[in-house]
Amino acid sequence: MFKGHPKGLIAAALANMGERFGYYIMNAVLVLFLCSKFGLSEETSGTIYSFFYAGIYLLALVGGAIADRTQNYKGTIRTGLIIMATGYVLLSIPILATSTNIAWLLPLTCFALFMIAFGNGLFKGNLQAIVGQLYDDFEAEAAKQGHEALKIAKSKRDSGFQIFYVFINVGGLIAPFIAPLLREWWLGANGMAYNAQLPALCHEFINNGTQMSQAALDNLNALMTAAGGNVAELTSACQNYLQIFNEGIHYSFIASVVAMVISLIIFVAYQKRFPTPGKKTKVESQSYTAEEKRAMAKEIKQRIRQELHLVASAGISYNKFLAKIASDYRKPDGLCTIHPAQALDFIARLPIESFWGVGPVTAKKMHTLGIHNGAELRDCSLEMLSRQFGKAGSLYYECARGIDLRPVEAVRIRKSVGCEHTLEKDISRTSSVIIELYHAATELIGRLQRTGFKGNTLTLKIKFHDFTLKTKSITQPHELTTLNDILPLAKQLLREVDYATNPIRLIGLSVSNPLEEREETERKERWKQLSLEFSDWKVSY
Predict the structure, then answer these.
(1) What is the CATH number of the domain that holds 135?
(2) I want to staple 393 with a disulfide (CB 3.0 to 4.6 A). Which of 219, 325, 347, 389 is the partner?
(3) Angle between helices 147-189 and 102-143 (to 10 degrees)
(4) Does the reported pTM lie above 0.85?
(5) Does the N-terminal peptide bond of residue 107 adopt cis geometry, omega within 30 degrees of 0?
(6) Based on the number of CB atoms within 10 Å of its own CB, is 510 exposed (0-12), middle (13-18) or buried (19 or more)?
(7) What is the pLDDT of residues 71-100, one digit of tens each?
(8) Is residue 221 part of a domain?
(9) Dihedral angle at the C-alpha atoms of 249, 250, 255, 257, nearest 10 degrees?
(10) Planar angle of CA 277, 159, 266, nearest 5 degrees
(11) How many CA atoms are closer than 13 Å to the CA of 499, on its beta-carbon side?
């Protein structure tokens, strides 16, 4: 069941099951307990229970806020378990309620219920947050191993939470039977039998015995006789029955205390395996000086050169759009920084073709609208750009003002795997092209095997001697994983390219369209627009 899941899942599930076990023991008899111990009406007992139940949910917000503020989720959970256990201990003390002590005993019981609700708020939601963080870390580690490992890790999250909640349900299924069994066992051990009507009648007789109707007295005598009480001393018999009846419930609360202690032991024993949600925000907010940023960019360029023997340009700025523009500004081996104070002037001089998402077709349309650079784009209103370019219009509007709110994604799901070969000299002979195509296909197979990537779309990329590009794609019903799959398709695509009079400078092959992407597309395609005919409807005013 737990195979392939984070190691901390079973400990979290068991800790939660213990807490739920204790809670449902108490929850099963709470209203009856308030009625039998204090002689409260069902309405009053129900009101106390309602406030308690509402507190369970409302105080969860408080518990989450405390954990978020302190960034001490584990400590908050431990405190919650201790507070709940203390509340159950207070409930389990077998003190007989009388007219002389009810003034402080009933508030003490309500305070114990508040402690249970507050402790539950500290525990429950924060433990779920830890389970969620378990899978966040699990997926982040899997991403380092490749696309397939990440896909498997992501598939485990839903089943992991199902396992987590199954343990809750197991505790909730068994616990309600414990309290009645302990209560009836204790009554039987003292020579008495259970009767749900007797506690209310006993309280009525003790408090207002002289004012009870004869029918009620007869009923009390009959039930007390059946339960094993001595009706000759009815006052004593009522007090004794209430004492033993409530002791049985008190002792069932001891089972709740034991469950809390077991849950606490499990959590403390395995807390080192649990992550701490929210700490990563401190890392994300870390700032660097301009010199530190340039040093990091230089280091990345050096590592690329050392490990891959390739040159790379680097761009530094305060958002993705400007950083990309900066990286293109001093190619092939440059480093450019665009400071915030320089951004608007830099963008104003930028040709419209350099903006993100502006290709040849869009650039031509921009020119017809009198937009040739960033300054002219900035003069355009959001309404006008949205009307002309749809959703992309808002992006152009923001980029012209140096705004790009797209987040930097440290971990990205791979959507394709490919390779490109820039040739030493331009070629146009078929035999030479086929040889280079074979080498590209062989390298592509190696990359697919190393990454574990699988897709069913093959794309051929050709760059000619005049730097014009041509791409051709073909999709198959099966995944492309071997040379026998890819090379014939690559040759088929090549036959659609005229290179006899236009020599080739670069050949590239890539595989794309992974399974999860196809499934997402299929899900979107299932939606259909429906229409309803209203022609037969009659409208009256």
Answers:
(1) 1.20.1250.20
(2) 389
(3) 160
(4) no
(5) no
(6) buried
(7) 888 999 999 999 999 999 998 888 877 778
(8) no
(9) 140
(10) 55
(11) 28
In a domain, 202, yes or no: no
Structure tokens given for 271: 């807390």
| CA 419 to each of CA 283, 427, 442, 462: distance values in angstroms, whole numbers, following the listed order | 34, 18, 10, 12
For 498: left if phi > 0, alpha if psi spans -120 to 50, otherwise beta; the answer is: beta
CA-based R_g, the chain, Å: 37
State the virtual CA torsion across 11, 14, 19, 23 in degrees, nearest 10.
160
We report the CATH number of the domain holding residue 507 as 3.30.1490.100
Mean pLDDT computed over every residue of the chain? 84
Q: 452 — alpha (psi -120 to 50), left (phi > 0) or beta?
A: left
For the chain, report the end-to-end CA distance as a whole number of angstroms.
Answer: 63
Distances (CA, A) of 188 to 3, 311, 508: 46, 86, 84
Buried b (16+ CB within 10 A) or exposed e, 28-48: bbbbbbbbbbbbbeeeebeeb
Q: Which tokens go with 329?
A: 């500004």
What domain count does the chain have?
3
With CA atoms as reference, report the closest residue to 448 among 481, 485, 422: 481
What is the C-alpha separation between 198 and 223, in angstroms, rounded?
Answer: 7
Element of type H or E holding 229: none
Give the type of residue at 203.
H
Query: Do both 63 and 17 map to the same domain?
Result: yes
Q: Classify residue 473: in a domain, yes or no.
A: yes
What is the domain extent for residue 373? 290-399
Query: What is the DSSP secondary-structure string of 144-175?
Result: TT-HHHHHHHHHHHHHHHHHHHHHHHHHHHHH
Q: Which two tokens stand for residue 381?
A: 């209103």
CA distance 409 to 540: 57
pLDDT of residue 256: 86
Q: Which tokens go with 66?
A: 């405390």
How many angstroms separate the Cα of 75 from the Cα of each of 15, 85, 123?
A: 14, 15, 10
Tell me the C-alpha distance between 131 and 12, whole Å. 7
Check residue 8 and give its pLDDT. 82
Cβ pair 223, 231 in contact under 8 A? no
Give phi and psi for 373, each to the nearest 5: -150, 180
C-alpha 204/C-alpha 137 separation (Å) is 60
Q: How many CA atoms lie within 13 A of 536 on its CB side?
A: 2
**Among positive and negative, which fits the CA dihedral 265, 269, 270, 276?**
positive
Residues 6+ apart with CB under 8 A from 197: 219, 223
**With 60 as the cut, is the pLDDT of residue 197 above it?**
yes
